[in-house]
Amino acid sequence: MSAASKERQARLCNIVQKLFPKVMQKIFKESVSPRGLQVKYQRKHIPIDLTENEISLMEKLPNIDDFTIELCYKILRYENVLHEPSCKWGNVPHDTEVEIGDDVQRILNATNDVISRKTDEISQVYYEEFQKRTQEVLKRVDNYLCQDTSIQLYQTIQSTDIDITDMLQQLALMQQVNVIQTVDEDSENIERYSRVSRVITDTFPNILRDIIRSNISASNLFQLCLPHLKDFSSDQKTTLNDANSSNSYDSMDITLIYKVMRQFSLIHSPTKGWGSYPDNADIKLADDVERIRCYRNHLAHRCNTNIGIDEFDDYFDKFRDIGYRMDLNFFQKTNYERLIISHKTCSMDMQMQIKYKNALKQLDNIKLQFEERPIKYFWGESFDNSLRNLRTILKEEKTEVGRRKVRVQIIFQNEENVEATIDILNSLKDEINEDLSGIEFIVATKGSIVLHIDVLAQMLETDELLQSTLTLFLRKILERISTSNIESIDIVLLPVEEFTQWNTPKPIGQPVYLEFDFEAELFETNDNIEEQLRKISHAIFKHSNGSGTNIDGTATLLPICLENMSTKEGANAKVQAPDENTSTKEEAHAQAQTPEENLSTTKESFTQAQTPVKYNLPVSVNLRQQFNIKKSEKEYLSMFCCIKIGNTLVFTDYNNNRLIIYNSDGTDIHHIPLSYRPYYMTVVNSNTVAVSCGYNKTILIINISTRSVTSTINTSSSCHGISYNDNNLYVVIDRSIIHVMDLTGKVLRTIPLPSHDIGDITVDRDRLVCIDTTSIYCCSLDGKLIWKFKKDKFQDLCRVTTDNEGNVYVTNYITNTVIVVSDNGKHHRELLTKSDRLDRPWGIYFDIKENILLVCNYHSGKAFLFDVKR
User: Fold this and answer.
1) For 256-265, how does the pLDDT look when each residue is reduced to its tens digit (9 = 90+)?
2) For a surface tag, which of 235, 467, 596, 627 has the fewest beta carbons within 10 Å of its beta carbon?
3) What are the phi and psi torsion angles at 188 (to 5°)?
4) Separation between Cα atoms, residue 268 and residue 199, nearest integer Å
5) What CA–CA distance (Å, rounded) separates 23 from 111?
6) DSSP conformational letter for 15
7) pTM over 0.85
8) Structural domains in the chain?
9) Which residues form the DZIP3-like HEPN domain (predicted)?
């Protein structure tokens, strides 16, 4: 072993140890924001399995001076910020492949080559060739970085003296960078299973936490649970205590959140009721909660991790739909759909795949328990726990406990022709149960094939009894559904949790406001007033429960509105009565206010009465035309924005990545497919619209005549509301600022916004009108607030438009209304309501030329043209 070889090896080690990490850090800084990565790391959104040393380095963010080659590589690759090398990661790029990803792969290969070579393999030819290839890579890296620091650092390191012995000792301790990804059928199945697991174990719990958090605080939930702690497992009790002490839901999982939401009726019931899988058309909030529970159970109870590509795609299509609807429920303040899409496609290293695979399997730890050919019996910890608890009871109580029936689910995991098989089994229920003892078939349902059975508790007393009982039963089942060539059937057993509704106190009722017109003379004396109120009370309480039974309640008279006395012969009085749910004296008193609170309420009401808001804006509408946008049965429309250009109506169809072009005479309909999801839209000219595509950070300029995208503008951050005025686009960026830009995307100036949650805008004359979900803001074009409109009744504002007199029209998604507000913000009225066929209205557009208002429902495919009279 020559001294020259040792020196060459030591100098190559010096490059690997001192040059390559710095070069990788420079590429890293160009591709990834260290501060942004720090936030992402703190939120645990990094899909990488890190070593202890790498965790300590990540804790130092935004400082990356000590990041290793491997840590830089992991983040660059698995954050998807570099294009994959043409040769794929882990291979050797061809000399003609010179993109930055290819050179990153070359740095990794060169590092591993130096670490793995023996001293006598470092010939002079190899050494010179290594140096040449390294300089070529560094020059391309500097060109990519628009600087020459890499080649300068190389020259400095080359001219520095080194301690050969020390360098070789350090080389002996170095480990190769792991960049090889095994690709075979098994590894692809595991990767698909891990990606599905990531949604189940990470994203779905966060969705349910958001839902329950928006309905009740963790500490208040704990108080509801206190009388029922016996109905929770020990682990659930610990979790509830943690939630109470931290007033946070971070530790609660899908099963526990589902249980309390269902038991305490924290949200409205699913369309088909709790415990039943929803139909495709069922899209209530609780329907998706039920879907999340079903997907969690279905995947946690699998006895294998093989997920084929078709099954994988189907899962993610359904997961994405859930995320999409959840984003709607939270008014686009969440990004669940985008997150789920990223889970399907983002890079995952092998360690992360194993982590998520294990996380899903460990939810119930399903294992093979015994085999009675051709049946393999699997069950997990939940069934094991039920068996142990049952057997303890059986030992302690030898009387009638053995006659108790236990409900069990049996899941066939690899059965085909599911629906036909279910129909056959349910039609043969009596035949199957004939001659069975201790076990009774109840019903077969979907979810593979799920058999619901009742088993006498004594049949579960020992493993032998359990096995013989199940085997006899399943042989009768298989005789009716199987063919002779079946080699093996996987069966998973699950306990059924009975949801007996706990006795929960009725929620305190909300006040009901009743308005009456009185003849003014009835207020002449107190006796007259009392007589009228007695009549009102008798009528209300007689009809409130249909039986005439007396109930106690409270009512508060608000100040009389004398606003319309000159036009009416009566005065308007408002009575606040108890909600119909308040049916007992105790519940009525629970609503009672202290004298101080009553005084405060009265003062506040009186103050409001002294500055009345006029509700009768002189604006009215007549329906001119209704449109039913055609859709196939499988299509789920989501028309979030609409415009009218002459006789042409244009709608954004967010869910199907397209624009819908519709002639107002109903003669023609076209679609313009898009690469991104369209959200907000504005008219540029008679043939052109501009469409913002939210978190894709993209604005599309589209010619609706040729039905083509003519140009694309990339924005610095997410883009939302958009309006065109005086040859410029006004675009809401990151919901907090407006970029004024020309049609090439050049930003001319910025305008601050009065809220950090602005969705839609419209620019009219010298004013900018914008909305968040609860308020309307009118500003000057330099961002100065002119007026603000906010009413507690209107909490779900979606889109905004203005007429040529400055009146503002806004859709209200939840209340199914269109509100019009006067140009000074002082007067308003509900212009359209559900009685006008509004059903989740979203898009709205005022055609100034024809004095026509266009409104579209977001999901039903219905749109309306109204003639506006002022």
Assistant:
1) 999 999 989 8
2) 596
3) -70, -40
4) 24
5) 12
6) I
7) no
8) 3-173 (no CATH), 185-215+267-361 (no CATH), 367-495 (no CATH), 512-610 (no CATH), 620-869 (2.120.10.30)
9) 230-333
